[in-house]
Design goal:
The protein is α+β, with helices and mostly antiparallel strands and 177 residues long. 25% of the residues lie in helices and 33% in strands. The chain has helices at 37-51, 79-96, 121-131, and strands spanning 6-8, 21-22, 57-67, 70-75, 109-115, 137-141, 143-154, 159-171. Helix 1 packs antiparallel against helix 2. The longest helix is centred in the middle third of the chain and has 18 residues, at 79-96. The radius of gyration is 17 Å and the shape is globular. The protein starts with 5 loop residues before the first strand and ends in a 6-residue tail after the last strand.
């Protein structure tokens, strides 16, 4: 993607393969910096309760797709991921109320990077299709990471860059951390 106007999310460097994320759900009622210790603890406890009933699962990610927003890997089959999302939404409602959920979520996906300029998705889609095999990869999900997400303006990205700090790691099925 280096030749295309896409800012990769935590790209690999040297021996580090980088980091990808599948957003299960966003809390949209306040910026992450506005959540105090007790609010975060209520959220963690609600997530632990709701996710204890969700068994770890394996699905697939891919194929890679470029669009107006950047490049993504869709999650399919999505049934288990949707069960996880609904349990997460239930926990958020219990801890923060309905106002914390301000969108419907859309198709679950892993963001490879966000567009930071104008380019041809046709050219990138051709490269993604012809140069990446296999087209899908197994994706094992056995935990959810609660992250404090922030956005900052970065000149090298052509705009905004997302970063996050770990808050909690919640195992699925109540398994040990």
């Amino acid at each position: 993607m280096a030749e295309h106007p896409i800012d990769p999310q935590l790209p690999g460097t040297g021996d580090d393969a980088g980091l990808l994320h599948l957003t299960v759900e966003m809390l949209a009622d306040a910026p992450a910096t506005d959540y105090d210790g007790p609010a975060l603890q209520r959220l963690v406890e609600a997530l632990e309760t709701e996710l204890a009933g969700i068994a770890p699962f394996t699905t697939e990610a891919g194929p890679p797709i470029a669009n107006i927003a950047g490049a993504v890997l869709d999650v399919w089959p999505e049934a288990d991921a949707e069960v996880l999302r609904e349990a997460t939404r239930t926990a958020i409602r219990k801890a923060r109320g309905d106002g914390a959920l301000q969108h419907q979520g859309g198709r679950q996906h892993i963001s490879l990077g966000y567009a930071d300029g104008t380019g041809s998705s046709d050219q990138l889609n051709s490269r993604l299709r012809n140069e990446i095999t296999p087209r899908r990869a197994p994706l094992h999900v056995d935990r959810v990471h609660l992250l404090a997400v922030t956005w900052s303006e970065e000149e090298d990205s052509g705009g905004w860059r997302m970063s996050w700090e770990p808050v909690a790691e919640i195992p699925l099925g109540g398994s040990a951390r």
